[in-house]
Amino acid sequence: MRPFAYTTAGTAVEAVAALAAAGPGARLLAGGTTLYDLMKLEIETPPAVVDVHRVADLAGFDTSGERELVFGAGARMADVAEDGRLRRDYPALTESLWRAASQQLRNMATLGGNLLQRTRCPYFRGGEPFACNKRRPGSGCAAQEGLDRSHALFGGSDDCIAVYPGDWATALVAFDAEVDVLGPGGARSLPLARLHREPGDTPQLEHTLEPGELITRIRVPVTPAGRGSAYLKIRDRESYAFALVSAAVALTVDGDGRVGECRIAVGGVATRPWRVPAAEQALRGQPVSDASARAAGEAAFAGARPGRHNAFKIELGTRTVADAVRVAAGRAVR
Amino acid sequence: MSSPHADVQPVDTRRVDAREKVTGAAVYATDLHPDQLAHAVLATATVGRGRITGLDTAAAEAVPGVLLVLTHLDHLDLQSPGFVMGGGYGVQSLQPLLDEHIAYRGQAVALVVAETLIAATQAAKLVRADYEPEPFAVTLDSPGVERLSQPAVIPLPFLADLDVGDAESAYAAAPVQIDAVYDQPAQHQNPMELIGATVWWRGDTVVVHEGTQNASAIRHGLARQLGIDPANVEVVSPYTGGGFGQKNSLQIHIAPLAVAARRLGRPVKLVVSRTQLFHHTSFRPASRHRIRLGADEHGRMLAALHDVEHQTSRFDLFPMMYTETTARLYGIGDFRGRQTFARMDTQSPGFMRAPFEHPGVFAFESAVDELAYAAQRDPLEFRLANDTTADPVTGEPFSSRHLAQCLRRGAKLFGWSARQWQPASMRADDGSLVGWGVAAGAYPASIVPSAAHLVASADGRIRVGVDGHEMGQGIRSAIALLVAENLGLDVRHVEITVGDTRVATQHLTAGSWGTASTLGAVHAALRELRKQLGADVSGPVDLAAAVGATGREHVESRAETLGPGQTEQDAERARQGLVALAGPEFTGYSTFSWIAHFVEVRVEPTTCRIRVPRVVSVADCGRVASPVTAASQVRGGIVWGIGACLREAGEVDPRYGGWLNASLEEYPVPVNADIGTLDVDFIGEPDLRFHPVGVKGLGEVSMVGVAAAVANAVYHATGVRHRRLPIRIEDVLAGTGLPEPRL
Amino acid sequence: MAATEPVYEVELSCAVNGEPVHVRVDTRESLLDLLRERLGVTGAKKGCDHGQCGACTVHLDGRRVVSCLTPAVQAAGADVTTVEGVAGPDGELHPLQQAFIDHDALQCGYCTPGQIMSGLACLAEGHAGDDDEVREYMSGNLCRCGAYAGIVAAVRAVAEQQGR
C-alpha cells in the first residue's frame, strides 16, 4: 500500500473542511470495506484520507417520519437491517442490507459508503496486467472479449461493462430515494438515480459528486408500496456473494386485485443502480398473476445487451423479477 | 474396545487438540514472531510466458525499511528440488528466481524483505519487470497444448494402460451402451491457512516452520537445494491449517527464504497472498473423461472404457491414476483405461483431495447412472447387481469390500424406497423439483514406512513422538485413542508430537495413508513397550506402577514399521524424505476404502437454483480409529463434493494465462448456508488382512462420488444430465426446456 | 481544520482483551497485522486479507468485524476482543468454546478463532434462533475443512442453554 496521510473528523462540517485541506486526491474513509480494500490492492492510491467513521451527526437514522425515512450516511448496514419498523414496512430495504456481504462487513460498512461501492469486475480488481479503462483510462476493457459472465446487460459502453455491485442502492432507486450532500459550496440534494454515472467513455468517473463533497443523508419518501416489497438476490452460493441478478419490487394491490403503485429495479446486471420503468408500466393496473409477473420480468430485460457468457442473466433476471413480484404482492396490503 | 474394569470412565473420544484450537493457543507456522523478524513479500510475473528483459528494483530498495530484494540477478545458487512425483521433493521442479525465463503468469520474479510487512508489501509493488512475451497455452482446448500418452513417457507399471479382457469388443457387442464425455475444471485447494513459512538459521542449521504435510521433504529437499547436510535442516509443523494436498511437498519459497535469512542473519517470514497462492503452488488439473459403458438387457455391466486427459505443466509430468479406481468400482469383466497428458503453460498441478478419484468417479458414476436409466433400472439396484468380491483387475480378492452394505444401509437411512424412478417426477410442497441421487466411491488403500517413539513415565503419562502430520484430520486423536485404549489410560495422559523432524522421520501424510501408517508404528511400539514393562500382551497396564517397578523414571520403546511387502529399501527412501508407498495391490489381495452417498437436491423451478438439503454417506474404512474426527472428515468430504459439483472452478482467460478468479470471493467455496443435514455412518469392520489394527483410509474416499451423487440427483430432479462441472445456474436454466432467453 | 503537517503515523491507544495498549502505528497498518505482527496476539488468522473469509474476525467494541479491513487507526479508544480474550481468567472455557469441542465444530483449527468470535456475536445479536438463521449469519466465516454442521450445532446448543 502507498503511504497516506490520515486525519479524522468529528462532524460533517469538519470532514468537508478536512477533505479540502487534505488536497487533491484525498478520500473519505468510513467503513473501509471498499476503499481500504482497494488501497491494499493499490487500485486506489489516495495521498490522504479523512476518517469519518465516527462522525456523530452522520450516524443516526429515523424510520418513523410521516413523509420520509431518513438515514444518516454513517449508519451501519447491520444496524439499519435490524430496524423493526423498516423490516415490517420496507422489507425490500432491509433485505437488500442483510443479503449483502457478511455480518462482519455489515457491522463496518456505512449506508453512504455502500452507495459508492466499486465494481467487483475481476479485470478491474486484478490490477496488472489486465486492460481496464476504469482503473487505467485508455488501456482497454478486457471484459469485452473476455470472461464476462458477471458483467452488465445494461448501461455498458465499448469502454466498460463492469457491474455496479451494490444491493442497497438498487433497492433505494426503486423507492425514489434522495441523497443529501455537503461540500465546500454548501449543502445540496439530488435523486439517487442521478448519483451514479454510466461508464460511457469515462468509466473512471462513477458518480456525480463534486470533489470535496460528502454524502450526509439518504432520504426515502414514505410509500404504502414499502409494505408490499421484496428484494431477491440470486448468487453463485446461498450467502456471502455478490448478485448474479437481483430484483427490488415494491407495489400496492387495489381492492380488485390489480397492481396500483409499482416500483421495480434490478441489480447485478447494470453499470449503475437500474430502475426499470417499462417493467413497472407493464405491471401497473394488471391483476397479480404468474402471467403479469412474467410480463414485468420480460419488460425489465427487453433492452438487454448480453455479451459472450452472460446472456443467461436475461432469463434468470426475468424470472427473478417475476418471483419478486409474487413475493411483494403476497406482502402487500390489500 | 471397552475396558474390563467397570469403574473406568468411558473413553473420551473428543478431538484431543480441540482445546488449543478453540482458545487460539494452537500456534501455526506464521503465528511465530521471533526477535529481529523480517518480513518477505513476493513480486510476480504479469506475462503468460516469456523472458525478463529488464528488472528495476531501485524504487523497491528505496522504500524505508527494505533490507533485501532477491531476484534472478542475485545468483541464489540453488539447485532444483526436483518434482515430488519425479523422484524429488518439490511442488514442482522449476525453482523461480534462478533465471530470466517466465514459464507462467504469477511466477515469482522477486522476494522483497523488509523490517515491516508494510514496507515489504509496498516495495514488492514497486518491482518493475520488462518482458519479451512468448506464446502460451493454458486450457485443454488451447492451440499449442502438447499431448503425450502417459505410458509412453513414464513407463512405470502402476501408470500403465489398463487392459482387462477385451473391452472394445465387449462394448461393441453390448446391447445397452453409454458413450459420453465429462469435463472437469481445474480447482484450487485453498486451505484456510495461507501458504507461508518462518525461517531462520541457528549456526549452520536452518530452522523451518511451515504448515506442511511433508516435513521430511522440506528437510531433504531444502538440503539438496542449498547443498547442505539434511542433518542441518529442522522442520517443525505441529499444526497445519488445512492441507488438502497443497502442502504435500517442498514449496518454492522455502529455499529463497533460507537464502534471505542467511544473508540477513535474521529470521524471515513470508505469507503468500491468496491471489498469489493460486499461482504459487499446486492445484487440481483440469481433466476430460470419455466413458463408454456397455450392459446387457438384464442390467449386467459388460464393458467399460475410460479415456482421460489431464493438464500438466511444461516442465513436470504430474502422473495420473484415474482408472486405477474406476476399474474397481464394479465387477466389469472387460475394462480399458487410457491416460494422456496435456502439457501447457501453468505451474505444475498436483494433488488435491481425492486427486484422481473425485474427477474419475464423477465421470464414471455419472455414466453408470446414465446406463442404469438406459437399462430402465433403479440406479441403486443397478449398482448392487454389479457388485464384485474379487478385484476385477488382478483377479485376487479384496481384503475387505463392504460397498454393498454401504449402499444398503445408506438407502435405508435415506429412505430411498420412497423414490420415484421417473426423472422430474418428485416435487416438494413449495413446488421445488426434488431429485434423489446415489453414487459409490472408492479410494486405494496405501501404506508407508512409519516410525514411533514412546516414553512412559513414572507419573503414569506417556509421550508419543511419531511420524505424521496434523492438518485437521485428527491424527492426534486417533493416536491418543489407540494408546489410551491399548493401555487402559485416560487420553489426557497421552502427549503427542507430530510433524517434527527432530523426533521422527516425517513421511508425507497424504493419500489417506496417514492414520493406517502411523497407527501401525504406534501399535508396534506399544507391543515393544509392554515387553519392556513386563506387561501382558493385552489388557490394561498401570503405567505408573509398571514404570516404577523398573526403578527408572522413564521406559522407552521404538518401532519402525513397513507396509505389507515393503523392504528396508522403502524404509531408506522414507528416511530420505521420498515417497515410499505400497498398495493398493498387495501379495494375494487388493485393498480399497469404499463409500456410498445419497443426496437430495431441490431445484427452485423459477431461478433453477440448486440446493442440497440433506446427504447420507456410509463408509467402509475398516476400523474407525477415532469416531468423532472420522465423522467430521466424512462431513468435510461431502462439503468438498458439493463444492466441486456446484461451485468451484479455476477460471482462465486464455489471453492472459494464470488464473482470473484468484480470490476467495471469485472462487466460491461453499459457505455455511450451502450445507444442510449431513448424516454419516460407518460399517466399522476392521480390515486385519491389510493392517494390524484393521484401519484403512478415510479422508479422501469421503469425497469420492459425492459430486456424481449430486449430479445424478440433479438429473433425477430435472431430467437433464449435466456432464461438465461445476453445474451452474445457467446450465440448469438452459437445460430445463423452458423458453430460451430473448436476445 | 487548519492545514497541518501530514500524519503518516499515529499514537494509538486501545484495549486488547482488556489490557491497555499504547503503540505507534503506520496509518496503513491493519488491525489484524497490528495484533499478529506487533502485539503477538495471533489468535485472529489471516486467510485472505480482503474481507472474503472471516478468519480474522474480532470484536470491536462488542461488534464482530473483519480485522483485515479495519485500519488499526480506527481502533483508537476501542475495546478489541480476540479469541484469546474469550475464556475465563483461570482458563475456564466459554460455553461456546466447550460446545465447539463437544460438537467437533472444527478440524484444522485455522478458521476456528474467527468462527468462535462470529458465533459469540451471532448469539449476542439474537441471530441463533434456528439452524437456518445460524447458517446465514455464520456464512461470513469460511471453513474449508467443512465443519459447518458442527458449527451450527455448537451455536444452537449454546443458544438453547441461554434460552433456558
TrEMBL record, chain A:
Keywords associated with the record: FAD, Flavoprotein, Oxidoreductase
SUPFAM superfamilies cross-referenced by the UniProt entry: CO dehydrogenase flavoprotein C-terminal domain-like, FAD-binding/transporter-associated domain-like
Record domain FAD-binding PCMH-type: where: 1-225
Any Pfam family the entry gives: FAD_binding_5
Gene3D superfamilies found in the cross-reference section: 3.30.465.10, CO dehydrogenase flavoprotein, C-terminal domain, Uridine Diphospho-n-acetylenolpyruvylglucosamine Reductase, domain 2
One MF term in the entry's GO annotations: FAD binding
PANTHER family linked to this entry: XANTHINE DEHYDROGENASE SUBUNIT C-RELATED (PTHR42659)
Protein name per Swiss-Prot or TrEMBL: FAD-binding PCMH-type domain-containing protein
Annotated source species: Catellatospora coxensis
Automatic annotation (TrEMBL), chain B:
Protein name: Xanthine dehydrogenase
PANTHER family linked: ALDEHYDE OXIDASE 1-RELATED, XANTHINE DEHYDROGENASE
SUPFAM superfamilies on file: CO dehydrogenase molybdoprotein N-domain-like (SSF54665), Molybdenum cofactor-binding domain (SSF56003)
Family matches, as SMART domains: Ald_Xan_dh_C (SM01008)
Source organism (scientific name): Catellatospora coxensis
Location of the Aldehyde oxidase/xanthine dehydrogenase a/b hammerhead domain: 23-135
InterPro entries reported for this sequence: Ald_Oxase/Xan_DH_a/b, Ald_Oxase/Xan_DH_a/b_sf, Ald_Oxase/xanthine_DH-like, AldOxase/xan_DH_MoCoBD1, AldOxase/xan_DH_MoCoBD2, AldOxase/xan_DH_Mopterin-bd_sf
UniProt keyword annotations, A-Z: Molybdenum, Oxidoreductase
Highest classification ranks of the organism: Bacteria, Bacillati, Actinomycetota, Actinomycetes, Micromonosporales
Gene3D superfamilies: Aldehyde oxidase/xanthine dehydrogenase, a/b hammerhead, Aldehyde oxidase/xanthine dehydrogenase, molybdopterin binding domain
Keyword Ion transport: no
GO molecular function, one term: oxidoreductase activity
From TrEMBL, chain C:
Residue span, 2Fe-2S ferredoxin-type domain: 10-86
PROSITE patterns reported for this sequence: 2FE2S_FER_1 (PS00197), 2FE2S_FER_2 (PS51085)
Pathway: Alkaloid degradation; nicotine degradation
Keywords recorded for this protein, A-Z: 2Fe-2S, Iron, Iron-sulfur, Metal-binding, Oxidoreductase
InterPro entries in the record: 2Fe-2S-bd (IPR002888), 2Fe-2S-bd_dom_sf (IPR036884), 2Fe-2S_ferredoxin-like_sf (IPR036010), 2Fe-2S_ferredoxin-type (IPR001041), 2Fe2S_fd_BS (IPR006058), Aldehyde_Oxdr_Iron-Sulfur (IPR052914), Beta-grasp_dom_sf (IPR012675)
Superkingdom of this protein's organism: Bacteria
Signal sequence coordinates: none
Name under which the protein is recorded: 2Fe-2S ferredoxin-type domain-containing protein
Organism per entry: Catellatospora coxensis
